[in-house]
Amino acid sequence: MLADWNIKIRRAAVLSLFGSLGIQTPATADIEGLTVHGFADVYYTSTGQQNSPSGNSGFKLGNLDLYLAPSLTDHIRALMEDVVEFDDWTAPGTYNGQPSIDIERLQIGYIVSDELTVWMGRFHTPYGYWNTAYHHGAELQPTVMRPQFVAFEDHGGVLPAHMDGLWATGHDDVGPGRITYDAYLGNGQRILDGALDMQNEGNADAHTALGTRLGYEFRGGALDSLWLGVHALEEQVDNFVSGVITARTDVKLFGGFLHWTPGDWELMGEYYDFDNRAHDALSPSHSSTAWYAEADYTFYGRITPLARVERDSLSQHDGYFQYLLGGQSYTRNLIGVRYDLTPQTALKFDANHTDATRNGGQAYNEMHFQVAVRF
Amino acid sequence: MNTVNQDIIALDTKRPPAAFVSTRTPRAAMRAAMVRSATAAGVRLMLVLLCLGLCSALCQPAVYAAAPVPADVLNEWPYDWQDEHGAVTQLSQWRGKTVLLTMAYPTCRETCSYALHRLEELQQSADRAGTPIEVVVISYDPKIRSGTWSIYRRHHHLDRTNWHFLTGSAASTQQFAKALQFPYWRYDEHLVHDFKILLIGPDGQIAETLTWATRNNDLFAAAAVSCPSSDARGCKL
């Protein structure tokens, strides 16, 4: 009986929460008021990888993503994105089948002008193109999965996709286009159980991450919509095993990116050059690189075939990549197609060949079919 | 043993008859008391949560019901728009004409792109029917630069002179979208919206609405049958 009451109370709490947040439904949505929007996706995976950290072949649940972005005043905005997901990467044999609930983004910002907005909270770290263009809503991104090294921290990514801290961003018209800039600082990351942790509960290590992204977006002319930029990030990352630090690494990365949509084409790419060094030693730095390039073309606004190549060469002498679950070198060639069944529903198929044998991994083929919706 | 019973029962404000109490074991009585206590607490908690939920819902910013669609879309809309060259214009300039109207934005690659393809097909259908039309595309994004639509047209080979691409202020765009029920929302840099095309007759009234469910309807097929090609200019919807 007590268990029944617990269930009833939880239901009441959930209903109450959604009642308070979702008083409007998208079907009757206005462009005013506070409306909950979101994304959901399910998919089928067939993988030739043995003991895959992303799980076995079969049907899988992707994200249930709830998104709120109330404009509190003309100058103050809040943005929240909460995700329930099942497909976190785990060490082989440790998959527990339990969902994880993540507050993926929780940021409150003050808009000074188009030239400057300052956010505080947990945000998507502004590097490259993908991480701030496609967030957790799978329906919007062209492929089923993000490029592997750009994946989120709990999906084998090797970059700090989330940051807890302060972020200044803006743009200013210069010449035929505009300059875009981002500057941020936040809690330094650490590695826990093979994944980067952004220390939501405070900066226990007192290490600060510092980064910037600077770009130029062409407006008009032959290069209209081309966005080119550079990015840099510096932080100390400690690896923890059972509460004990086993490696301290000064991580430095520098790179560039582009995104261009000439007509119905879309071209994008990102490049990262790491120069990591053990923090307490006089050992030499370890150089690693990672990049991807992707092209797609949209026919009739609904059918988008695409191709992507991913290459990363990550030093295994580096205390950063050595302890990350996704920290092995690999090459991946991917082709796929996206079909917009309706404006709210995308069907996506992609197939890839991945070769991770350089660091003793496997070479395998993989296929994904995804149904993704927004609401 | 009885003392324990009495102590437990004393916590309960609705004390059962003594005869009933005396038949219970201490464990059963304790369990019953816990259940009653949990029940009361649960009810109170639910009420609090319900109140919080209702309260926060009621305390939200006012949610305005969608404004009634203007009877005359072209003439009753007082806002100024900028055309693709930066010149100020109003929808009333197409008064007395048949207009196809949608909302889109230049960097949108899927739903807008599909809507513009459908507009091209409808244009061809109108041509076949001999029905002169004007096509008006209004930007969801009020912040696009003057000239951006021109580039979009060039890239997408949308060069007919009866096609017009407009941009408004943030307020007029929002109010226009609301009044004509083009719902949209922002997901960071993405403007998320649905498919919709309005057919507006010469009287300024919405004659037909194409949504996703009716996207393949040919708005001018009937006119093609009834309209002799020799009288194309005088043939109105």
Give short descriptive properties of this protein.
heterodimer; A: 375 residues; mainly beta; Porin; 2 domains; 16-stranded antiparallel β-barrel; 54% strand; B: 237 residues; alpha/beta; Glutaredoxin; 5-stranded mixed β-sheet; two-stranded antiparallel ribbon; 7 helices; 9 strands; 38% helix
Overview of the structural elements:
The complex is a heterodimer of chains A (375) and B (237). Chain A is mostly beta strands. Chain A has two domains: 1-35; 39-63 and 94-99 and 124-374, Porin (Beta Barrel), CATH 2.40.160. Helix content of chain A is 6%, strand content 54%. Chain A has helices at residues 2-21, 130-133; strands at residues 37-47, 58-68, 76-85, 100-113, 116-124, 162-174, 177-187, 190-192, 195-197, 208-218, 227-241, 244-260, 265-278, 286-297, 303-313, 330-342, 345-355, 363-374. Chain A has a 16-stranded antiparallel barrel with strand order 1-2-3-4-5-6-7-10-11-12-13-14-15-16-17-18. In chain A, a hairpin with a 2-residue loop joins strand 8 and strand 9. The longest helix of chain B is centred in the first third of the chain and has 33 residues, at 26-58. In chain B, 38% of the residues lie in helices and 16% in strands. Chain B contains seven helices and nine strands; from the N terminus they run H-H-H-E-E-E-H-E-H-E-H-E-E-E-E-H. Chain B folds into two domains: 2-58; 81-231, 3-Layer(aba) Sandwich (Glutaredoxin), CATH 3.40.30. In chain B, the strands form three sheets. Chain B has a five-stranded mixed beta sheet with strand order 5-4-3-8-9, with helices on one face. In chain B, strands 1-2 form a two-stranded antiparallel sheet. The radius of gyration of chain B is 32 Å and the shape is globular. In chain B, helix 1 packs parallel to helix 3. Chain B has 237 residues and is an alpha/beta fold. In chain B, strand 8 (197-200) and strand 9 form a beta hairpin. Chains A and B meet through helix 1 of A and helix 3, helix 4, helix 5, helix 6 and strand 6 of B.
